[in-house]
Specification:
heterodimer, A: 309 residues, ABC transporter involved in vitamin B12 uptake, BtuC, 1% strand, B: 278 residues, mainly alpha, two-stranded antiparallel ribbon, 2 strands, 74% helix, 3% strand, disordered C terminus
Chain lengths: 309, 278
């Protein structure tokens, strides 16, 4: 069962606080990177919810996030103000996730993975081909949300806004896992037969969990669209989903704090390594294998020590 | 029609290897596309020095050995599909970067051998001989695998080991050695596919990813662990690709994934699965 141990809460809070400090005192690049970390962290949180606690490893989350981003962009272009448009984006992502979850929830393991891969790639291919969505070129000129007393065009304000959203999504994930629904969701993962015997419908619970996770992924998409002020099908390719999975594994799956620390570590490593080599994926690949062999607990597990699981 | 057959033969070469390792052994191997890519690059490198036919022999051998080394050193230690997916995903990253370091980002091509260049009239249409050769090779490999798995003692031992590893070991089958050989065979088939594909399509680092998806789709549609299924799956996917691109280009990319999704929903075990496992 999920426990927000003090050490996990401390890790997540420390990372978020350190990022806020870095954005405040760092330059333009630092602020852009912090916003990017926040987007990735929210998406990783969404994936952690289904993969870490529900055992449903999804390769569709990049595409679902993309639906959120495109939903926001289209609603915004249609004349809707940013905040209602954000709701439209999240609703679109939730609906997509509900549909995918409803169909895929009865599959498990590799078959679930393949099904989400198929649906994610369908969404990507449709977007890529659709002229109304800008096709390969994507959509640009997307507005950022107006904030009271603050200018969201300022990189610092936007970075802090993104961090607040990431913290909010973390709180939502904790609340979901602590609720009755969260207990059922994990029970279905731990032992589907026993959960079914207790009167819990495994498939329905799994589908609902996938829908909730999709809503959070949609929030990540809306934030990404606001950050880049541009959306493209790149967001949706299955390798984007695979990359989030890597982030989650490196950070530590099934801990929520791992999603945050993994996102920060991944983006920092990407920018740092890009300075001196084009081949930083080599290190990521090796690191991934080491983490998997060491037992899949990632950075977060390393910091927590070996005591509890 | 012939294009469909040729595409299917190529897909069969790639995906039969995946069907062997993923289907027969239950090993979710995302690095299969990377092995295919290595086959193409090794094939090109050998062909430059010793000619096409040597490359056709060397590429599967080298990739097969690499597969065996990977299996012994890393993959045999993994437990559960999740670890396999992740570790092999890590291998994809490494393989792509190694290829980029060794051969660069530029796409490489391989000339067709003199014997197979030119074209022949088939059913009244001029058709490149090399593509006919690919079709033939696909048929030979498919038939060979089917015979090997279903009609030989080794195949029976392998099927027994997959069915019940403990029992197979108890009656004296060396399951570990058998799995090692099977994985190496799957890798070698990927290498062969890569070398054969090199003259048709150029080799580039992106093919590790782009080749993986069709191979996975073929394996899942056809049913894991079924050679007949892999052949059927390859025909279906190639048919969708070729006819889809000609008749309804906008939707062809979607159709393949739709076929995959439909198969998973309708018959999660694949069209011709050996049995309902798990």
């Amino acid at each position: 069962m999920f426990r927000l141990t003090p050490i996990r809460a401390a890790i997540a809070a420390l990372v978020l606080a350190a990022l806020a400090g870095w954005a405040s005192f760092g330059g333009y690049l630092a602020r852009e990177m912090v916003a990017e970390i926040a987007v990735l962290a929210i998406l990783a949180l969404a994936l952690d919810l289904v993969a870490g606690f529900g055992g449903m490893v999804s390769l569709a989350h990049g595409a679902i996030m993309g639906v959120g981003a495109y939903g926001y962009a289209l609603a915004n272009q249609a004349g809707l103000p940013p905040w209602p448009a954000a709701l439209v984006g999240m609703a679109a992502a939730t609906l997509t996730g509900t549909a995918i979850g409803a169909v895929s929830a009865r599959l498990t393991g590799v078959f679930f993975l393949m099904a989400t891969l198929a649906f994610g790639q369908m969404i990507w291919a449709l977007t890529f081909r659709a002229d109304a969505l800008g096709g390969d070129n994507g959509l640009g000129g997307i507005a950022r949300p107006p904030l009271p007393f603050l200018d969201s065009g300022d990189p610092l304000v936007f970075a802090l806004y993104a961090l607040v959203l990431a913290a909010g999504c973390l709180a939502v994930c904790v609340a979901v896992l602590r609720s009755r629904f969260g207990q059922r969701f994990e029970a279905v993962h731990d032992n589907p037969d026993r959960a079914a015997a207790l009167g819990i419908a495994p498939e329905r619970i799994r589908a609902q969990g996938f829908a909730i996770s999709s809503m959070i992924a949609g929030a990540a998409g809306v934030l990404a669209a606001q950050h880049m002020q541009f959306v493209s099908p790149e967001l949706m390719v299955w390798t984007a989903s695979g990359e989030v999975l890597v982030v989650l594994i490196l950070g530590g799956i099934g801990s929520l704090s791992g999603a945050v620390i993994g996102a920060a570590g991944f983006v920092l490593l990407k920018y740092w390594a890009a300075d001196w080599t084009d081949h930083w994926h080599l290190a990521i690949g090796a690191l991934l294998i080491v983490v998997v062999l060491a037992g899949e607990r990632g950075l977060s597990g390393l910091l927590e020590g070996r005591r509890d699981a | 029609m012939l294009n469909t057959l040729q595409q299917a033969a190529l897909l069969l070469l790639i995906s039969s290897g995946l069907s062997v390792s993923m289907g027969l052994m239950g090993f979710a191997n995302l690095a299969h596309g990377a092995l295919y890519m290595l086959g193409a690059y090794i094939g090109i490198a050998v062909a430059a020095k010793a000619g096409f036919w040597a490359a056709l022999l060397a590429a599967p051998l080298a990739v097969g050995l690499l597969g065996a080394a990977l299996y012994l050193g890393l993959l045999a230690r993994l437990r559960g599909p999740m670890q396999q997916v992740l570790a092999s995903f890590g291998l994809v990253f490494i393989a792509v970067e190694v290829v980029r370091i060794l051969w660069g980002d530029v796409a490489l091509t391989l000339d067709r051998p003199a014997l197979l260049s030119g074209s022949a009239a088939v059913l009244g249409v001029d058709y490149p001989i090399y593509r006919l050769f690919v079709i033939l090779l696909g048929l030979v490999v498919g038939a060979g695998l089917w015979m090997g798995v279903h009609r030989s003692t080794l195949g029976a031992m392998l099927r027994a080991s997959v069915e019940n590893r403990g029992m197979a070991r108890a009656i004296g089958i060396r399951t570990e050695a058998l799995f090692l050989a099977t994985f190496a065979l799957g890798a070698a088939l990927a290498g062969l596919g890569g070398a054969v594909a090199a003259p048709l399509y150029s080799a580039n680092p992106g093919m590790a990813i782009s080749a993986l998806i069709p191979a996975l789709i073929v394996t899942v549609i056809g049913g894991m662990g079924s050679i007949t299924g892999a052949i059927l799956g390859a025909l279906i996917v190639a048919g969708i690709e070729v006819f889809g691109a000609a008749l309804w280009p906008d939707a062809s990319a979607v159709l393949i994934y739709a076929a995959l999704a439909a198969t998973l929903i309708w018959r999660p075990q694949g069209l011709l699965a050996v049995k309902a496992r798990r």
